[in-house]
Amino acid sequence: MHLLLFLALFAGTTAALEELIFLGFNIPVSEIDGMNNPFCAFNQWVNGMLFPQSALGWYDQTFGRKGAHYAVTYTRDFIAGTAMYYTVAGLWHVWAYTMNGDKFYPGDGPYKRADKPIMWDQVALAQVSLFMYAALPVFSEWLIEEGYTKVYWSVEDVGGWPQYFGLTLLYLSLVEIGVYWMHRTLHTNKWLYKHVHGLHHKYNMSPGRELSPWASIAFNPLDGILQASPYVMMLFVVPCHYLTHVFMLFFTAIWATNIHDALVWDTEPIMGSKYHTIHHTHYHYNYGQFFIFCDWFWGTLKENTARSQGSVKAKAS
Q1: pTM > 0.85: yes or no
Q2: Do the Cβ atoms of 271 and 234 come closer than 8 Å?
Q3: Can you give the chain as a three-state secondary structure string?
Q4: What is the rounded CA–CA span in Å between residue 220 and residue 236?
Q5: What pLDDT was estimated at residue 312?
Q6: Using an 8 Å Cβ cutoff, are 234 and 167 in contact?
Q7: Closest CA to 217 of 136, 110, 317, 316
Q8: pLDDT score of 311
Q9: Residue 67 has what pLDDT?
Q10: Exposed/middle/buried for 304, CB within 10 Å: 0-12, 13-18, 19+?
Q11: With the C-alpha atoms ordered 75, 81, 161, 227, is the resulting torsion angle positive or negative?
């Protein structure tokens, strides 16, 4: 049921964006050094709406037309990622701490809310890392626009919605497996843990090192890119709708906020904060991203015995 909800979210967003693009706007297809595919045209169109012509002209003169295309796209993704981080984490902070702090983090509760110094530490690390995070979707765009992947532009390209759902389910499943094993390797490989992933695990719920929504993307930048890389790698394996892929990349940032709030909710089989908090206190359990299936199958699932604050329905109310 929860898996179907994820598919419905991705399909609904894709359908809405397709209608917005195909019915509401006319996207001109102009060639950039031989690239005249709809992916390149879409990014040109978006960049043209977001940046003034004077800025676009400066990029063209500085980087050349093709280089400017990706430089502008990087700038756009960096600004969008930064805005999303502060907006989502900020709203989560207000909801969890300001509006419901005494209810969600009582004195006799399993976890303590994060203090300001550790939250500022998380913000600083996330902000620095965002400069590199923004490079991954640009690399993904380059692969897609150059025709190296199996990404398609319209649902009609694969025969309709039934095929879309089947391919998206396969893509999401392989990405989930890929993220699980990438995350697990970052723990089991001593060098990678010490020099790459361990930085994120200084937030381990000990006094002064509590998790918070601001810890969502507070990683060594290489760490964040490695954990997101299955989203790109699987584009070579399974056809994926372009808009679905883009939405998934940004949705992961929202999801990361959810699983770092240290709240204990019953969300099975979704890998909610109930499980991810255990990952930060016990390290070698609960590596999954969206679901607990991989941890269950490969024997790394660990239940959280803390008193639950309710079901996922209660969390939303």
Answers
A1: yes
A2: no
A3: CHHHHHHHHHHHHHHHHHHHHHHHCCCCCCCECCECCHHHHHHHHHHHHHCCHHHHHHHHHHHHHHHHHHHHHHHHHHHHHHHHHHHHHHHHHHHHHHHCHHHHCCCCCCCCCCCHHHHHHHHHHHHHHHHHHCHHHHHHHHHHHCCCCCCECCHHHHCCHHHHHHHHHHHHHHHHHHHHHHHHHHHHCHHHHHHHHCCHHHCCCCCCCCCCHHHCCCCCHHHHHHHHCHHHHHHHCCCCEHHHHHHHHHHHHHHHHHHCCCCCCECCCECCHHHHHHHHHHCCCCCCCCECHHHHHCCCCCCCCCCCCCEHHHHHC
A4: 26
A5: 39
A6: no
A7: 136
A8: 42
A9: 94
A10: buried
A11: positive
How far apart, in whole angstroms, are the C-alpha atoms of residue 167 and residue 162?
9
User: In degrees rounded to 5, what are phi and psi of residue 62?
Assistant: -80, -40
Q: Closest by alpha carbon to 217, among 89, 83, 87? A: 89
Those residues whose C-beta lies under 8 Å from the C-beta of residue 219, and which sit 6 or more positions away, are 125, 126, 129, 197, 199, 200, 227
Burial grade of 98 (CB within 10 A; 0-12, 13-18, 19 or more): exposed
Peptide bond preceding 230: is omega within 30 degrees of 0, i.e. cis? no
Cα 184 from Cα 155, distance rounded (Å): 34
Query: Using CA atoms, how far apart are residues 227 and 189, in angstroms rounded to an integer?
Result: 14
pLDDT tens for residues 253-280? 889 998 998 888 777 788 889 899 999 9
Q: Which residues of the chain have pLDDT under 50?
A: 23-24, 29-32, 310-317
Map tokens 């999801």 to a residue: 255
Give the total residue count for the chain. Answer: 317
Phi (first) and psi of residue 32, to 5 degrees = -125, 100
Answer whether 273's CB lies under 8 Å from 258's CB. Answer: yes
Question: What sign for the dihedral angle of Cα 12, 15, 18, 19?
Answer: negative
**Whole-angstrom Cα distance, residue 278 to residue 286?**
7
Q: Which is nearest to 233 in space by CA: 177, 183, 184, 193?
A: 177
